[in-house]
Amino acid sequence: MKNAAAHMPKILARIKKQGCVLMLDFDGVLSSIVRTPHRASFSSRTRRLLARCAAHMPVAIITGRPLADIMRRVGLQGLVYAGSHGFEWKINGHAERRRVSAHAAADFRAARRTLLACATGFRGTLAEEKRHCLAVHYRGLSRAGELRFRRAAHAAMAPFAGAIRVIDNLCTFEIMPSAEWTKGDCARLIWRGFCNGAVPVPIYIGDSLTDEDAFLALKKGITIRVGRNIESAARYFFKTRAEVNAFLAALTRGLYATR
């Protein structure tokens, strides 16, 4: 991985030449990670920067949060929003969702019931229901409690191997149908929607395991992970979330407008 801040002149020169479609995760990228999802803050400065970017280029937020939640939380018009790890999205006021087969939906419902039952045995966990996804946040547990919960949750999901995708990352244990649809597929769909003759460079900024799908799907684009991880498929990294705001500010200085 390369340090994005150190390569910023090269990154901005490419954006100036080709234009871009800016796509970002929310938690850990635009907002700090917090113990409970509903307490996530979205600073007025970040909101202003994002609004300025949207005046010059297509901007999309692709998050694990439910679509209604992220739209309400961000509250900016003119953005593309995608929730539930890309299973639902809204573009130009038109909402769509990725459908799963009846069999996959049945497997997910069974796994969901099992995981919820498992989580009830651990005081301090918080379940978050989404479309075709269930997240159990365990940041409220002690270190020993985290280990016990993770062992129990993985064991509970073992019978659903192959049918259910498990993401255990950033103190969140999440399940979804093991369908061939990820944040990467959603990001590519959004980007291609703006490829009208010209081919703008896709930019994707994320910090979690599910964002790795987008990094892989957009290999030729500008992919940036918040937090260095040598195992990441991202081309660049930002050391901190503050560098995300610095990047957004650079995009709003007028030289990099794309529409």
Automatic annotation (TrEMBL):
SUPFAM superfamilies (alphabetical): HAD-like
InterPro entries: HAD-like_sf (IPR036412), HAD_sf (IPR023214), OTSB-like (IPR044651), Trehalose_PPase (IPR003337)
Enzyme class: hydrolase
Cofactor: Mg(2+)
EC number: 3.1.3.12
Family membership: Belongs to the trehalose phosphatase family.
PANTHER family to which the protein is assigned, alphabetical: TREHALOSE 6-PHOSPHATE PHOSPHATASE
Protein name: Trehalose 6-phosphate phosphatase
Record organism: Candidatus Sungbacteria bacterium RIFCSPHIGHO2_02_FULL_53_17
